[in-house]
Amino acid sequence: MTSVTTRSDITTLAINAVRVLAMDAVQKATSGHPGTPMALAPLGYVLWMKHLRHNPADPSWPDRDRFVLSAGHASMFLYGMLYLTGYDLSLDDIRNFRQWESRTPGHPEYGHTPGVETTTGPLGQGVGNAVGMAVAEAHLAALFNRPGHDIVDHWTYFVASDGDIMEGVSHEAASFAGHLRLSRLIGFYDDNHITIEGDTDLTFGDDTQKRFEGYGWQVLRVADGNDLEAIDSAIRKAKSDARPSLIIVRTHIAYGSPNKVDTAEAHGSALGDEEVRLTKENLGYPSLEPFHVPDEALAHWRGARERGATIQLAWQHKWSEYSKAHPDLAQELHRRLKGELPPGWEEALPTFTASDGSTATRAASGKVINALAPRMPELVGGSADLAGSTNTIMKDAGSFSADNYAGRNFHFGIREHGMGSVMNGMALHGGLIPYGATFLVFSDYMRPPIRLAALMKQHTIYVFTHDSIGLGEDGPTHQPIEQLTALRCIPNLTVIRPADSGETVEAWRVALKRKDGPTALVLTRQKLGWIDRARYAPASGVARGAYVIAGATGGKPDVILMSAGSEVAAILEAREQLEAVGIHARAVSMPSHELFAAQPESYREEVLPAGVKRVAIEAAHPMSWHRWVMNDGVVLGLERYGASAPYERIYEELGLMAKDVVEAARRLTGL
Amino acid sequence: MTSVTTRSDITTLAINAVRVLAMDAVQKATSGHPGTPMALAPLGYVLWMKHLRHNPADPSWPDRDRFVLSAGHASMFLYGMLYLTGYDLSLDDIRNFRQWESRTPGHPEYGHTPGVETTTGPLGQGVGNAVGMAVAEAHLAALFNRPGHDIVDHWTYFVASDGDIMEGVSHEAASFAGHLRLSRLIGFYDDNHITIEGDTDLTFGDDTQKRFEGYGWQVLRVADGNDLEAIDSAIRKAKSDARPSLIIVRTHIAYGSPNKVDTAEAHGSALGDEEVRLTKENLGYPSLEPFHVPDEALAHWRGARERGATIQLAWQHKWSEYSKAHPDLAQELHRRLKGELPPGWEEALPTFTASDGSTATRAASGKVINALAPRMPELVGGSADLAGSTNTIMKDAGSFSADNYAGRNFHFGIREHGMGSVMNGMALHGGLIPYGATFLVFSDYMRPPIRLAALMKQHTIYVFTHDSIGLGEDGPTHQPIEQLTALRCIPNLTVIRPADSGETVEAWRVALKRKDGPTALVLTRQKLGWIDRARYAPASGVARGAYVIAGATGGKPDVILMSAGSEVAAILEAREQLEAVGIHARAVSMPSHELFAAQPESYREEVLPAGVKRVAIEAAHPMSWHRWVMNDGVVLGLERYGASAPYERIYEELGLMAKDVVEAARRLTGL
Question: Most distant CA pair in chain B: distance in Å?
Fold first, then answer.
């Protein structure tokens, strides 16, 4: 192994404190990942003490540099930095690592611990998040900076492990970042040659330098992760280049541990009391007492607070100057960073009338986006190479590109997973509301970042079109069946599947107003008839998740017909046919199960009174409807894959027509 | 544009026939992707006529070369090849492109069209499938070939589009293939500079050559996709190298079309009648009649049948020799390729007794795998860098590596998506039953290939461990909540979540016997008590999906308690407590919703008699249980994310204990 520096200078002591805290916290919890924090401690020292522009006293200062620990399992590295540099995180918090309601959970959680910029753990995500943060910085800088006023002027750093580098999402995000020449993005690849199963040689032989050079990144190397000067010099070089940079740092997992350094064992398990002791001795650490940080080491680290205060103050001065010189811009940036929507934006929402005729909800959505675009400049987004098909282009808003960071249309490329992960970074950065589009079936490619957006309560919007067998000829590989259920069960994701143009407008309204989590809009490829709201209940019912779109004659229904999206037309037609034969049917449009579930019991009972039998229909897996149809109810859905053919034929063959609803209702009620 | 060869030689005519069929089929369907087949026609000609060892008369000949069209949207390229070379696909089938029940669906579907080796369309998947096929070839060759008897001796080719190259799964699969030095794998990258949104420059600037060299591939270039000699020479070079090869072919989308060549428009839309006519004229095609293939061109292509028959015959001779020299091996290979399980394998299944004590179901699964390993050599697999945690290592079976293709333990790396996609290729190739493991929460990373396995009815087995908040300290990023529901709604996937060691054995039995689709085994990290089957019903009930594990006293229950996996212990305990206060409770273990749903109504009524109120509990999203608890039933589940803490604490805090079941049952029944 690399020889251990035993010099007792303050730098070494400070670095070893990170290692000690990591070892001790994992040991006390008897679970966690000590090896990587121990390896990364010198990098942490150089980065956090010499380069990272941050103020521990104000983790939400908008122009701070962002630090993303993509290797989230090494959470004790981040907690160590946060505690030592003086964030609002105590030594008791560290002692409480991985305990119920502690501020130091197993993996870093955004919103839970001050200074944690994003939730990481699922590998590869942090790389995408960092790219998204750099995107946001570049975009806001292009929009708001003025000569002599670099008011948006920060860097994004990330640390990636072998796992992050192996995951496909890192390919998508890095390729995207390279193409965009995001020079404010600096990544560290913790090249330790160890994964959980053992040596990386077991499964991984990439020349990562070549790979990232292929993406257009500058790639630098630090041969010894303990070489502070080499780390410092690499960061300087990274900052002076016009490309994003990857610094490959050769480290040794569990550095300092005489018996576990460079072993897979040190990856995800406590070292053991004895090895902890031996390591502290080997490192020449002044005390064996758990969680001991010598006063002088702490004082040294805490210098970060003073430096941070100075940096932020300097920026505040810049901000004052800027506010004087460009008051409108300052006010606008302030509004955007606070996440406040522009006044009067709802007035810009379009209305649709009979003269618009039949419209696909994707097309209606495109109109909403374009109506809002001029009034809501923070709305930015694009698609995974399906801009035209998903109707997500904002006219006259330009394309975000290396030559035009002010552009608002994002060409994410055929990279759904990367798109989701980059969107999370953009939202986390602040100042933007990102939307991202693809076909609904390909939401499967981006579930990990959707889940994280929901977990982190981020304001992202997914536009998922081609939402059923209604897409027709592309066939079963492109026809979603299970995706609606699979999205509806993600906690804190709101899924809305509007039935017509009017509901599409309302769906966007909900998605934009919502601030505590993501929304998925689920839209058709095929045209849907315009629902005459003079005759039927207003589309504003979308906000409550479900509403009686057409009541039964006489008020008391014999049967309730329920649906969402394109199949609402079928229940409206079925209702007519049933009423024509004297069966009183209520039609309920239910665009969002989650919004409806959140309504008071009284409203839910009003829409779906107990004791009335129910028929639900959706061109999708029936699973999510069982909660709502209850006993003896019927769900017409699909528990099979679709087929390639013109869509009208598929609907008919698979029994998802108004006549099928009528038949089911009659069988159910015996009327 | 590149000048169009107008020479009327037979080769050109044959190649243009592919273009004409693609144009005409898309035109007739008024949907589809004509541009890429037109560009790839020369490549198709060289590959299918000069290199691909295939026999159109016998698409299931085991030693055929495999061809994977990862760019599945270019399906008319493949259908063209299949028709022209004489597979069982008629010109009427081609005319019927994208119609109900036709054999030429929008994207190629395995099992639907003779000669289609895998279902493609979702981008990137075909690259992984091809890697899996090459893995299977290498493995079977290592096991079965003998000096002088190269009985397994074929190549795998794939065609990838920009989309395949951009998708993250291509990174994972290509990195894996490069590390394994799969020299029998040859890919073509259709470098046409066009995606749906426009020029690839919009979003894609990779140096793909450098990237693939970084993976350890040989990368070759063909500067002109119409240069037959250059294509031929590149394939020869690819075959002579010890690495996998990627041949980057510069093509022109919609080659031949005077007005649409090199445009995004030609990607996914019919060219239009007029442009079709102009193109045929421009190509000097002898007829404007739709679907016209000149007799001499067809005859030329159909030479493939004779060559194919000869090649297969030669192999049959080799096989006869091999069968004489190595009868046991021949018999064994024959058995494996037929997908027959070895006789008596079930005898190898372990039994667990009280003396085994508390066991995590992942550990029980590990014992099953190891008990079967010697008796079932086709069982191969591994994990996405979680072998130890998922208990998926087969002792003494060796690691599959570049130096040992006979190894049965696969180190898939931190590449869940790639793992799923490679497994599909392995299963499609035949001769292997692949299993792949990761934590349940990371099933999200690999949903696209799981879906395709289900759609293609492939025999793959997923081992998903750490299946709930029961994993404890790793926290919400690692604790699955919605994943069970999200898997249970995938059509044709069987999900089994066993309650103890005994049910784990039965779950494996089901998974191995099932031949028409994949199975996901969902297993705990934490230890579960051994369920005494002398006292409770036998675990063989797993095969029926749900069974009465403990009846109510007196037979007629006041309430039914239902659960799966680790929470079955809670219902057994709750049942005791309820019976103790005179409430008659039946406990139903329901490890597989899908298997239970497939039972006859009579059995389902027997297990869950109508009119008896039901309480279900699972440490997961409740959505999938509503179908089974019905009216007034209660589901104790989680509609929130978990937390980082020791797991016993999380269970208690989130209300998933026996006492919560008792309380719910009493409230529900009013007893």
Answer: 93
Please tell me the distance from the alpha carbon of residue A132 to that of residue A428, in angstroms, as a whole number: 8
Give the whole-angstrom CA distance, residue B566 versus residue B571: 10
**A623, A629, A631, A637: CA torsion to nearest 10:** -40
Q: Is the pTM of this model over 0.90?
A: yes
- Helix, strand, or coil here: B246? strand
Largest pairwise CA distance in chain A:
93
- Residues 6 or more apart in contact with residue A315 via CB below 8 angstroms: A61, A63
Two structure tokens written together for B196: 């749906």
Question: Between β-strands B359-360 and B585-589, what pairing exists: parallel, antiparallel or unpaired?
Answer: unpaired
Q: Please compute, for residue B233, the number of CA atoms within 13 A of its CA located in the half-sphere on the CB side.
A: 10
Cα–Cα–Cα angle for B564, B565, B566, rounded to 5 degrees: 120
**A374-423 pLDDT, tens digit each:** 999 999 999 999 999 999 999 999 999 999 999 999 999 999 999 999 99
Instruction: Indicate if the pLDDT at residue A6 is higher than 70.
Output: no
Indicate if A416 belongs to the active site: yes
Distance of CA B417 to CAs A19, A166, B125, B172, B438, Å?
34, 11, 9, 7, 11
CA distance B639 to chain A (A): 6
Pairwise CB contact (< 8 Å): B168 & A417: yes
Do the Cβ atoms of B644 and A444 come within 8 Å?
no
The beta strand positions in A75-168, using DSSP E, are: 156-160
Is the Cβ–Cβ distance between B498 and B595 less than 8 Å? no
Q: CB neighbours of A580 closer than 8 A, spacing ≥ 6?
A: none
For the beta carbon of residue A603, count every other beta carbon within 10 angstroms.
15
Looking at the partner chain, which of B98, B102, B491 has a beta carbon nearest the beta carbon of A639? B491
Query: What is the number of residues in chain B?
Result: 671
pLDDT in tens, B227-279: 999 999 999 999 999 999 999 999 999 999 999 999 988 899 999 999 999 99
* Phi and psi angles of residue A546, each rounded to the nearest 5 degrees, phi first: -150, 150
pLDDT band at A170 (very low <50, low <70, confident <90, very high): very high
HSE-CB at B222 with a 13 A cutoff on CA atoms is: 33
Tokens matching residue A325? 């010189």
pLDDT of residue A196: 83
Show Cβ contacts of residue A9 under 8 Å, excluding neighbours closer than 6 positions: none
In the predicted model, residues of chain B with pLDDT beneath 50 are 1-7
- The CA dihedral of A565, A567, A572, A575, to the nearest 10 degrees, is -140
Residue of A nearest to B206 (CA): A215
**Which residues from A are below 8 Å from B206, CB to CB?**
175, 178-179, 214-216
The catalytic residue positions of B are: 416
C-beta neighbour count of B57 within 10 angstroms: 16
Residues sharing a CB contact under 8 Å with residue B491, sequence separation 6 or more, in sequence order = A481, A482, A621, A638, A639, A640, A641, B454, B455
Cα–Cα dist B97/B107, whole Å: 10
SS3 B157: strand
What value of ipTM does the predicted structure carry?
0.97
Residues in chain A within 8 Å Cβ distance of B211: 210-211, 214-215
d(CA B281, CA A621): 48
**How far is A447 from chain B, CA to nearest CA, in Å?**
6
- In angstroms, rounded to a whole number, what is the distance separating the alpha carbons of residues B154 and B65? 5
Let me know: does B247 contact B265? Beta carbons within 8 Å. no
CA distance A339 to A515: 8
CB–CB of A473 and B101 under 8 A? Answer: no
Determine the pLDDT at residue B8.
57
Q: What distance in Å separates the CA atoms of residue B448 and residue B461, rounded to the nearest whole number? A: 15
Listed in sequence order, the residues at least 6 apart from A577 whose beta carbon sits closer than 8 Å to its beta carbon are A658, A659, A662
Half-sphere exposure of B607 (CA within 13 A, CB side): 26
